[in-house]
């Protein structure tokens, strides 16, 4: 379903019911599932507008890649809950495209808002390409000159004393472009957080940045540092950086 968005972009909307396999042990939608479904919904909009991944590959030899996410969470959707997912390509400049997602309940209240930054990459040399107006024209998003300043993360040097957990990159971790599915990074990072802590806390705000591709045949070295209720995560010397602000949940939420 299409409608005019709050700015210039076209708003795309889908009804969705949270399935069992996307729910965690607390009967809430997994963060990695939120990210995967968001990608699916954005892909559906692109295909409906005649700008599918196949079209971008055939006409420009490019593919889309997300380089940054920010998630703001009021509460996570629950197992079997009927929700509404909306997405809008908000704006773009010569190298970056900015897209928002909203996960809402049936009354229209936003449960989770995701802001994301995308780039076009060449399929062969894996370098960032300029954004051609023809590619993004159907989304009717605003063309801007400024670059939105990214979130500042702890650098790899801050994790020198932190112990690393090693995860092998498996074939099942790869996406259609041959690199690690971006939803996997959050799982690798958050799996380091103590289970008892997870039982009483949920993510309130999450920042994720992908700096370098991690390919099949390599290992993930994940490191974590805690400051108050914020966990800082570094994967493979700044290849991916994640910051999670945790909030203690009330007894009736547990």
UniProtKB/TrEMBL annotation:
Transmembrane segments: none annotated. Residues 11-139 form the Acyl-ACP thioesterase N-terminal hotdog domain. Keywords: Fatty acid biosynthesis, Fatty acid metabolism, Hydrolase, Lipid biosynthesis, Lipid metabolism, Transit peptide. The keyword Nucleus does not apply. Residues 160-248 form the Acyl-ACP thioesterase-like C-terminal domain. One of its GO terms (molecular function) is fatty acyl-[ACP] hydrolase activity. InterPro entries: Acyl-ACP_TE_C (IPR049427), Acyl-ACP_thioesterase_NHD (IPR002864), FATA/B (IPR045023), HotDog_dom_sf (IPR029069). Belongs to the acyl-ACP thioesterase family. This is Acyl-ACP thioesterase.
């Amino acid at each position: 379903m299409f409608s005019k968005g709050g700015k210039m972009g076209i708003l795309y909307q889908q009804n969705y019911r949270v399935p069992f396999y996307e729910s965690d042990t607390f009967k809430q939608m997994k963060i990695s599932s939120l990210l995967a479904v968001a990608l699916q919904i954005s892909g559906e909009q692109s295909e409906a507008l005649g700008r599918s991944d196949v079209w971008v590959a055939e006409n420009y030899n490019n593919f889309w890649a997300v380089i940054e996410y920010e998630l703001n969470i009021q509460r996570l959707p629950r197992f079997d809950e009927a929700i509404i997912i909306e997405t809008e390509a908000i704006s773009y400049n010569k190298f970056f495209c900015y897209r928002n997602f909203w996960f809402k309940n049936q009354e229209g209240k936003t449960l989770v808002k995701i802001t994301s930054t995308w780039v076009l990459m060449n399929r062969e040399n894996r370098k960032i390409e300029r954004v051609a107006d023809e590619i993004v024209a159907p989304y009717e998003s605003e063309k801007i000159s400024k670059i939105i300043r990214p979130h500042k993360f702890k650098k790899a040097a801050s994790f020198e004393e932190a112990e690393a957990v090693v995860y092998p990159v498996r074939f099942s971790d790869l996406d259609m472009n041959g690199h690690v599915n971006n939803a996997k990074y959050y799982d690798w990072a958050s799996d380091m957080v103590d289970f008892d802590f997870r039982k009483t806390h949920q993510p309130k705000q999450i920042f994720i940045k992908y700096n370098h591709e991690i390919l099949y045949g390599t290992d993930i070295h994940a490191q974590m540092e805690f400051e108050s209720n914020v966990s800082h995560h570094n994967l493979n010397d700044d290849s991916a950086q994640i910051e999670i602000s945790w909030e203690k949940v009330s007894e009736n939420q547990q």
